Amino acid sequence: MTTPRFSRILLKLSGEALMGDGAFGIDPETVQRMAQEVKAAKDFGHQICLVIGGGNIFRGMAGAAKGMDRAQADYMGMLATVMNALAMQNALEQLGVQTRVQSAIQMDQVCEPVIRRRAVRHLEKGRIVIFAAGVGSPYFTTDSGAALRAAEMKCDALFKGTSVDGVYDSDPKTNADAVRFDTVSYTDVLAKDLRVMDASAIALCRDNAIPIVVFSIRERGNLANVLAGDGVSTIVE
Ligand code: UDP
To answer: CB atoms < 10 A from the CB of 185, how many?
Structure first.
């Protein structure tokens, strides 16, 4: 077996990655497919920290736009990420992969609290650690949660699986002439507002020299390809 390029990675999946063809919620078949992709990466030798968003269930901004208190809505969004984490834990364990969920909002009956040193031990024992509830505070997103965990867990890279295959100079969904970058600097992402992740997540990765690999999670097998250095992606570094 060849040694992986990145020994410890943080994989961030948006909540939408669990939705399948539906418009909302969790599609168990899709979660199972995502779990297979994650298992393949683990079997290749990577230590994996996982962060899953909550946008398939609830986003605080959407609640606030409809008149809810922003902080209250954000807490609901964080709880949504815990549901996604539990769904992914279930799917991974059905494939025989050992996992632990650690939540930034303490929930003793369903998962562990975030304890960095314990999380490191889980990884060393071959378990996947799923970090839920983002940073545990409103006005943040799971992208910031992913950057924070990547930094404190000393991950070699942050892999962000989305519905597009990288970072473009304009929105490829509305502009057919949009050009994808192979690599782009943190500074350009921030200065040109390229919408890879929110600014606090980009800044945290920049300050801790964590490369961000943006790739599409929609195509089957793409995570393994990108981890192996093949496949289409953009690297922010
Ligand atoms: N959220 C939050 N603080 C965090 C992480 C998440 O308040 O540290 C809330 C926020 O309302 C966000 C929602 O949880 O909209 C779901 O997370 P996110 O939008 O990042 O999910 P994704 O877009 O990745 O599916």
So the answer is: 12
